[in-house]
Amino acid sequence: MIQLYRIPPDNDTGAMGLIRDYVCNTTNQARHAILIDPADQTPEIAANRAMAAAHAGSSMILVGGSSDTDMENVHGTIVAIKEALELVDWAASQDSEESRSFGQIPVILFPQGAAALSPSADAITFMMLMNSTDPRFLIGEQVKGAPFVRKAGIEAIPMGYLICSPGGKAGKVGKADLVMPDETERVASYAMTAEFLGFQIFYLEAGSGASEPVSPSLILAAKNACNLPIIVGGGIRDQESAKAACEAGADWIITGNITEEYDDASELQRDLAEMISSMRL
Ligand code: 1GP
Fold this sequence. Notes:
Elements: H1 18-24, E1 31-36, H2 43-56, E2 60-63, H3 71-93, E3 107-109, E4 123-129, H4 135-152, E5 155-163, H5 168-173, H6 184-196, E6 201-205, H7 216-225, E7 230-233, H8 239-248, E8 252-255, H9 265-278
Parallel strand pairs: 1-2, 1-8, 2-3, 3-4, 4-5, 5-6, 6-7, 7-8
Helix pairs in contact: 2-3, 2-9, 6-7, 7-8, 8-9
SN-glycerol-1-phosphate binds near residues 35, 210 and 233.
């Protein structure tokens, strides 16, 4: 039999699972992640914003977008962010006061599909858009992208992804049958299904730039229905909405859009730090 793809031998897989554990093991308080869309900014600006988030206390950097991303802009952005994180770590190693290692902050692909990946990512959210009406987003893109992920040796984090109203571009591109704010039974069923299918994490998405974030009642229903950490993103722009999502049971809060409104990295760092501290319940 011809072996096309190298499956890592046992002694190589020691590190595999570490990032998945870091992301999927719940902690006693919700964590924040910044989402960087490579279609909206240069790699250099993306790296500056990601550094501001890291300094503010973000725990993960997601890279992806629902349209106009490709191998080139995704890879360039990931490389720039990782280099910037390493540089900060090197500087910190010269300073005995600084204890937090930025190298521990994973840079993770949050892909629109198989055509926008990078071998330099620390991991990939390997996701099913569970309420898509198009098989392409349920299984098609995943099958296309799997050989790349295997070859690159990137860790895959199996994730159920559910788009709620208003859904934004992600809802349209992904042809999602949106979950409405009062459909708590439906979101609970999806959350259970995500767990039973073996996903390690469940993402409730309102769409980037959403006018309304995912309703706390949906977050609570998902949280009570499954044994998975819950990620919430889309339209979270202020401390109140971040706090409300955490109170309802979110384990991760994702913010993307607001980040792009800042040209000044220190202002971004200040506002994100305030948001992250409001998440401490
Ligand atoms: C989108 O959930 C993310 O996939 C982030 O949304 O850009 O509205 O913060 P925002």
